[in-house]
Amino acid sequence: MFSIDEVKNKARNNLKTLVLPESYDDRMLEAAATIVGEGWARVLLLGESATIKNRAADLGVDLTGVEMINPASASQLDDYAATLAELRRKKGMTVEEARDTLTADDHLLFGALAVRFGLADGMVAGASNTTGNVLRAAIQGIGLTEGIKTVSSFFIMQTQVSELGEQGLLLFADCAVNPNPRAEALAEIAVTTGRSCRTLLGIEPQVAMLSFSTKGSAKHEDVNKVLKALEIARGLDASLAIDGELQADAALLPSVGAKKAPGSKVAGHANTLIFPNLDAANIGYKLVQRLGKAEAIGPIIQGLAKPVNDLSRGCSPGDIVAVAAITAVQAQG
Question: Which regions of the chain carry the CATH code 3.40.50.10750?
Answer without folding.
Answer: 152-298
